[in-house]
Predict the 3D structure of the following.
Amino acid sequence: MRRLTALLLIVAVTAGSFSDTAKAETPLGKWARDAQQRVVKIYGAGGLKGLEAYQSGFMVSPEGHIATAWSYVLDVEPIVLLDDGRRYESKIVGFEPALELAILKIEVSDVPFFEIEEKLSASWGDPIIAVSNLFNIATGNEPASVMQGTVASVTDLNARRGTFKTPYRGKVLILDLIANNPGAAGGAVIDSRGQLVAMLGKELRDSATGAWLNYAVPANALRQTIGDIIAGRKTTIPDSSTPELARKDSHNPDALGMVMIPDVLEVTPAYIDNVSPDSAAARAALRPDDLILLVNGQRVDSQRTLRSLLRTVDRRDDVELTVQRDTQILPVTLQP
Amino acid sequence: MPRLSSLCSPVAVPLLTIACTLILGVRTGSADNEYRQAMAKAVREAANRVLPSVVSIEIIGTAQATAGEVEQDAPTSGVVIDPEGFLLASSIVVQRPSASILAVLPDGSRHAAKVIARDYHRDLVILKIDTDKKLKAIEFPATLDLKIGKTTVAVGRYGGDASPIVSRGVLSGAERLDGVALQTDARVSPAFYGGPLIDLYGQVLGILIPAVASGGAPDPTSWYDSGIAFAIPSDVILKKIERLKSGNDIKPGLIGIASKTKDPYDDGTEISAVRKRSPAEASGIKAGDEVIEVDGRPVRRHQEIKQALGRFDAGDSIRIKLRRDGKEIEIETELADTIPPLQPQRLGILASEQPGETENDETQVFVDDVVPGTVAEGKLEPGDRILKLGDTDVTSIGALRSLLISAEPDTELVLSLTRQENDQTIKITPDSISGPALNEVAKQWADAKPGNWKSEEIKLPDAGNAAAFLAPEPGDGDQSLGLLVLLLNPGQDAPRKIVDEWREAAMAAGVVLCAIAPEDARRWQPKELNAIANFAAAVIKKAPINPTAVAVAAPGAIAGIDAEAADSMALAVAISQSSTFFGVSVSPKTRSPAVRLKENNPSAALQFLLPVSANQELPEWSLAIQRMGYPIVRGGDTTILKLLNWVRLLQAI
């Protein structure tokens, strides 16, 4: 790009008129503007100490479904700021830990959105722009930041031992652009047709080289899950219609053998502190430091939610958990 | 490629701008899009020309001791240079011993590689794999178009499936790193090391290596992804490759000359001393010669000599044009991979300079005083004017010092001098600086009465360290004082108190004292190396200090005090800031710091003082120190006063 600008500038000078400078300007503006309108800023409650409580996301339906990276920012129902500054409270309607993907929903209609292609069309060398709210530079009604670059590589980082410390398994785009910064996770990577090609990932080092990665997860890998969540085929919203059972008739963490970390915060994450011997948890090989993400497919955002979800399950029934252990996402069945 | 070149041609430009105006409103602007697509296509086409020859290199089973961010066993790239299975890679792959080096071919197959030879000068290594697979060798052009600003593409393989990876930039510079490397602004992350840097036509410009500019960072990988990356040019590789393939290592070529100027960027190319048993000596280069050209390149400063010599290897023959006694002569010399280390020598005099009588006359060098107990005692006298050492005219104190630092041990020298208006010659065998410390100081110092010395705190704008110094009030007492920079251990945070405790000894020895506490109360940090030299420079301006009597020390320099963090830091400071410090004193139990050891420089020679006696064993790191030509002085039962006397005597020649 710089090369073209310089080239045209030289032409402008030889023509002896600065009015030609305008011709040197790239039409990146339109390309960028279209993309920006589909990108949103997402704010959480404050997250963990010392970590940023903001990230990026993008619209995937005209009714306000937003795809973003699943992270600690989503501890609470996040606040979403649209490109024009409109502010919404959002609901987390679904998430897929294995893809590090979450879908939020806000109450709007007719918003611009990205369609997601079935196939990965990007290849190495392709020009792209990345739109995200890196470092939360764009505040209030400011649109997200646009950066240009190219795809450096389309590669598989997982074939080697634990190279890529995320549960995501599959192809990634490596970007020739310093794109992955605090707040950029969930941002959109767009090709020169204006088509969404990937979602920026969280900040990560490549553990094989030790270097910081600039990477994005291809959109086609997220397509099925996004579709399922929007269509309601896959939701993690607690079903409020399921009645709570009497304490003696339902499950609770202690009875299942899960000693949770002390519940001292308003939203204490559901980390297991200890596993009681000879319990359902012990039989299922749960371990201290496992984080419970889902109970019977419903999202656990805190220990309080964990307890209330378990209250809806008959104590004679199995409990399906999804837990995170380091970077692994594991399905676990607790049999009482 | 054709699309891009047509875009660049002058005829196509009007069409392009028309296209811009006409198609405005189409989603991404088609001319812009077309340009970007053309570039993407050009980059892919160029990279595809070399990719069949680009492999991924994996390191298996190496010790994890990283200095920088980048892992020791980071997978990197390499290129096939011969269908027989020879590969070229970055020497980062042999930086540490490993159980195995694997080459991953473009088809994903892995092959064990063995190391054939290493180019220590260019950080490259030749590997060999045995395989029946058909290998495609990369082509290194013999001539390169190195127009600065031309498009460059870094190419490598990355990830478990060894996918192609590219980063585009421009050529930022040539002949970097003392004439050895090209520079590009492509974002070169570790995976690219060993891979080719190509132009848009698929021509190989060079092979990427991890490197930083001198003084840039402790680890060569520190600048990854920064837009500052280096590659060894193809034409040079082409010349070296057969030598490497036949199993011969390549080392940088050394010549063995010392510069008269302390700062290599100063004007002037006069040689102050020639190293013993060096190529310079063998080819007849003499102290006092001025270098005019190195291999046909005119040079004006010692830095330019260094840069011109930088491209040559040990074993290369080069022509050097010199000016000697007003006449130009040309010599040829074959560079060596090693020169026997310096064994610095000393006469034991204090000298001073006076300008010549007329502007055209050379500077005159006089003996000011003789240090008792040295070889100069009884042979030289205060007031002697030194004319020549051997055949070399002595025209500055620095040149005289260089000559003695590079002198041969136990070898008689002939000094020509003027004593009370009579010319005479004196035969004298200098003494090695290594060995026991001198017991006495110059008579003129011992007799001097110290004036009024004052301590005060000192702050520097860009350093957060607490520091204090103790110095005489201006215009008071002795000239040519010493300066000791004392580094305090983490936790010692009252530098003013320390300098006051040392006041009596400092005044007696005539050594200005500057104590510096670490910025962080828990440790010394590498970024403070430079700050410490800045403190020394600031204090030198405040008192009449001889700039060659400047040392850095830690509390462990005193006998009986244990080594701590400050001792390692003092060593690191002395080695990395060698143009400021001429002496360093620490505990013999000091843990050696992570700094690259450079050879002792006769123009700014450094000596070590350790509180050990004649028969005590020296620390393990002292072997490396001595191999690099640094003398180790044994202080025995070193007291504060003895340490300070040694500091001031650093100026003795």
